[in-house]
Structure formats: C-alpha cells, structure tokens
Amino acid sequence: MSEQECRKLTGRSKDEAVLAAFQEAADRGIAQAHTVMGEVLDAAGKKKRAEAAYAKGAREGDADACFAMGVIREAAGKRQEAKDFYREAADAGHVVASFNLGNFLYDEGDTKTAETLLRYAASSGYTMAGYHLGILLATHRSAQHKEAEQLLHDAAKSGIVEAHAKLGWFYAKNDQLGPAEKHLRRAMQAGIAIAAYHLGLLLDRQERSREARDAFNEAYRLGYVENAHALVIVAREEELLLGYKASAYNGTPPSHSGPRPERRRWGSRRRN
C-alpha cells in the first residue's frame, strides 16, 4: 500500500498506522510490541519516542528492548546502566547482549565470566564473539592457545581483518616468525596501523633494517603515533630521521589516516 492509499483509507501515514496497530497490541500486554514500535520510531529518526517505547518493553521483560536500551545507555556514557540492561537481555538468551556484556566484563578484568558469555555468543554463530574469545584465550589462557589460534583463524577467514593483526601478534609472541610476518603484512595491507608497527618490530628483530623502516613508515602514514619513537629506530637517512622526529613528537597528526577497527559491532535482534 502506498503512503497516499494508506492516508486515504485510514487518515494516517503508514508509520502512524503501524504504530497504532502495535500500540493496540501493547495495550493487550504483548511486550514485544513496544520494541517494534521503538524500531519504527528509531528508523524514522524519532529517537526520544523510540527510547520511551524501548523502555516500556524493557520494563515488561522483552530481551530485544533491554538490549536496545543497553546500546542507548552505552552511547550516552552511562556504563553501569548499559551493563544492567545487557545483563537482563543476556539472561534471557540475547546473543549480542551476551557479547557486549562479555566485553564490558573483560575490560573490567573479569575474564572468567567474560569467557562464559563470549563462548555462548560464539556458539550461537556470532563471528565477532569468536574473534574476541580468541583474543581472551590467547592473552589469558596459556593452556588454550590451540583453541585461540583456531578461533582467530576462523575470524580472519570470515573477513575480520583485525584477526590477522592478532594472529601476527600471537605467532610473534610464540617465536613463529614466518606466520607472524604473513599475517601482519595482510593486516597492514588492509590499513591497520598497529599491524604495520608490529611488523616493523618483527623485521627489526631479524635485522632486516630497510624493510623494518618501510613498515614503520607505513605505520606512521596510517596514523600510529603512540610509540612514534620506534619509527626512527632503523631510519638511517638523516632526512627521514629528522622528519619523523619533528612530526612524531610534536603531536602533529599524519596527513593520511587508515581505517580504524570498530571497537564493537551492534546487532539489533536476538538470534534464535
């Protein structure tokens, strides 16, 4: 039905007609109706009304509404409220809420609970959760390095290019220099600045000075300046040395920045 036909038959716009129908359902006690109303309002750019609808759905225990409220609260910087909403949704089986809560707890040092939540999300088919679980195991579970390696490989094969950077770090830490270089180069080619930096360190470790300098140069070009002094370790030419020092230490940003990994990817619906 077109917008014009809808107005002719109902006297309302399509969105208004949809909202009226779901309001009737909500009035009959169907909690999910509030969530759908929130989604319709959100898509229409009516953020405050959307939040009010999600809040009603959350109060009635709808997991999708709790998740949506968690996203809204996190975006507003209200971390504890976001955690509470994510936890309520996760307890009801919401996959992405479990992932987000797991990341929160990991950041706070609770790796045991974070692992449980990430495992659940990964086993439910959420690829990003498998990637984050791989990072957790590689960093904190030395007895589970084989599983960590497989999870990171799976993530890389699924198209998560940041997984190549983590694999490079993983192999370098375990003195597997060939695989480390392969994955760091792949990540660097995808525009990940820190991978170029670690590739430079790896090459410098092997006394491959010119290649290391090129990798540091690429890290700088992509925007990695946190440890910019490393960029001059093997820069033998005087003009390169002076150029790196001048820009790296005065806080001047590079003229070209590469893509940054997303901290987190959001889903909007529970996965069954």
| CATH topology label of the domain at 12-86 | Serine Threonine Protein Phosphatase 5, Tetratricopeptide repeat
Largest sheet: none
Q: Return the CATH architecture of the domain at 12-86.
A: Alpha Horseshoe
- CATH superfamily label of the domain at 12-86: Tetratricopeptide repeat domain
Query: How much of the residues is beta strand, in percent?
Result: under 5%
Please tally the helical runs, counting DSSP H or I stretches of 4 or more residues: 15
Q: Which shape, going by the Cα principal axes?
A: elongated
Radius of gyration (Å) = 24 Å
Q: Number of DSSP strands? A: 0
Instruction: Report the uncertain regions.
Output: 1-12, 234-272
Distance between the termini: 31 Å
Average pLDDT works out at 80
Which H/E pattern describes the elements?
HHHHHHHHHHHHHHH
Structural class: mainly alpha
CATH class of the domain at 12-86: Mainly Alpha
Quaternary organisation: single chain
Please provide a written account of the structure:
The protein has a domain at 12-86: Alpha Horseshoe (Serine Threonine Protein Phosphatase 5, Tetratricopeptide repeat), CATH 1.25.40. It has helices at 3-10, 14-27, 31-43, 47-59, 63-75, 79-91, 95-107, 111-123, 127-140, 145-157, 162-173, 177-189, 193-205, 209-222, 238-249. With 272 residues, the chain is mainly alpha-helical. Residues 1-12 and 234-272 have low confidence and may be disordered.
